[in-house]
Amino acid sequence: MPKIVNHDQKRKVIAEAAWKIIESDGIEKASIRRVAAEAGMSPGALRHYFSTKDEMLIFIMDYFFDIGKKRSDDKEWSKDPLQAVEEILLELVPIDEEKKIEASVWWIFALRSLTSEVLKEKKEELTNGTYELANSLLEILALKGILLDSVDLELEKSRLAAFIEGLSVHALLRPDVYTPEKVKEVIRYHLETLCDKGNIK
Fold first, then answer.
1. Helix, strand, or coil (residue 33)
2. Is the dihedral of CA 184, 185, 190, 195 positive or negative?
3. What is the C-alpha separation between 85 and 66, in angstroms, rounded?
């Protein structure tokens, strides 16, 4: 009887093994042979999933992105629109260990994509996703009559995306200053500057 391979479990083992090496020793030390050894596989079996460092980064990004997406899909958001927008933005900031790993993977990926054509398309897809999410959140506030009429939606989409990405960097690098409480406070303050306070519950 042929052996049944649990591909989801394999993906988990490989992605976490590869990330463990990158986190401790850097991307250049994460060779196919070393990742395979860490994952308890042969190099040949590992190449079924990826064959270069850049393909490996895409593999890791997809794995952790899927974790974040499932977490968001399973989450029950607040019925209050402003609170819901705040909760969604908090999902993008590394304020716990799980999100710190996801953010670290993203920034290593983003930096390497500056010199890699293989990663460029994936980087643009994910970056565009941040802008479109920002746009959707602003549209929610506008539809609920909370967003100030003076807000330029196109400019604010760019500003909100840049704001949340910048906040993520600070939360990752200075967790002593950008504590979860501080991050929540900063996000709430930014959102309130965009809203008609008379319409906030």
1. helix
2. positive
3. 21
CB 64 within 8 A of CB 105: yes
Per the CB < 8 A criterion, the answer to whether 21 and 34 are in contact is yes
Global pTM value: 0.85
Q: Are 118 and 54 in contact (CB under 8 A)?
A: yes
How far apart are alpha carbons 83 and 109 in whole angstroms?
A: 31
- The DSSP call for residue 198 is G
Per-residue b or e along 88-124, where b marks 16 or more CB atoms closer than 10 Å to that residue's CB: bbbbbbbbeeebbbbbbbbebbeebbeebeebeebbe
Q: Tell me the per-residue pLDDT of 1-43, one tens digit each, with 9 for 90 and over.
A: 445 556 778 888 999 999 999 888 888 888 889 999 999 999 8
Would you call 111 helix, strand, or coil by DSSP? Answer: helix
Cα–Cα distance between 150 and 156 in angstroms, integer?
11
